[in-house]
Amino acid sequence: MIDTQKNTSNIQENERSGLRISHKEDTKITSHIDVIDLENDYQKLNGKNKNPFPVDVFPKAVQEIIYEAHNKYQFCLDYLGAGVLTAASASIGNSYKVEVKKGWHEKVNLFTVIVGRPGDSKSHALNFCFKPIHEREDQFYKNYENELSEDKVSLKLTLLKKILISSFTPLFIIILILYIMIK
User: Fold this and answer.
1) 114-125 b/e with 16+ CB inside 10 Å = b?
2) CB burial class (10 A; 0-12, 13-18, 19+) of residue 69?
3) What gap in Å lies between CA 57 and CA 63, rounded to an integer?
4) DSSP H helical segments within the chain, as ranges?
5) Distance CA 156, CA 163 (A)
6) How far apart are CA 45 and CA 43, in angstroms?
């Protein structure tokens, strides 16, 4: 914005990458244009995607992460948005439930299938979204190893905490075979 009295620009960038615009010095009216709002508007109005992922439903901090990953790594917003929702669902786990009706409670588990062309960076986008969970599981494993080495002396039961399951099908088959053998 140009100040008409001084004919100079009055735009200053703040530390969160937003623009702070001062209108007239004497009225002291200040408005804030957020870069995330500009990014949301651009994504909606550029016309490339007829049905864009509604990134604007996320909190601003999550939107910043999504747009930063989109701009830096060129991950599709659809993959990032779905990945964030799925990672949040996995993080919540069984801690919270939604009351659909009185007496009817459902877990917030979200099962997601992402379909795209080969080379679209689907796996990379999901790995980006799940990185904090993988780091937490690595810490669980380190704790498990420490407890296991201590348990050799005390002979108590040690369990490994897991948030995510990978290679579910072979595990399911093994459990099914064991179940059949027991019966």
Assistant:
1) eeeeeeebbeeb
2) buried
3) 9
4) 35-45, 60-73, 77-92, 122-154, 168-182
5) 23
6) 6
- Look at strands 30-33 and 8-9 and give their pairing: unpaired
Rounded to whole angstroms, what are the CA distances from 64 to 36, 38, 68, 123, 145? 7, 12, 6, 21, 36
pLDDT, tens only, 111-163: 888 888 999 899 999 999 999 999 999 999 999 888 888 766 666 777 788 88
Taking residue 43's Cβ as centre, other Cβ atoms within 10 Å add up to 18
In this structure, what DSSP letter does residue 54 have?
Answer: -
Chain Cα centroid distance, residue 111:
14
In the chain, which stretches have pLDDT less than 50?
1-27
- Phi and psi at 74, nearest 5°, equal 65, 30
Q: Please name which of 18, 33, 17, 24 lies closest in space to residue 2, comparing C-alpha atoms.
A: 24
Q: For position 183, what pLDDT does the model report? A: 67
Q: With b meaning 16 or more CB within 10 Å and e meaning fewer, what string describes 168-178?
A: eeeeeeeeeee
pLDDT score recorded for residue 125: 95
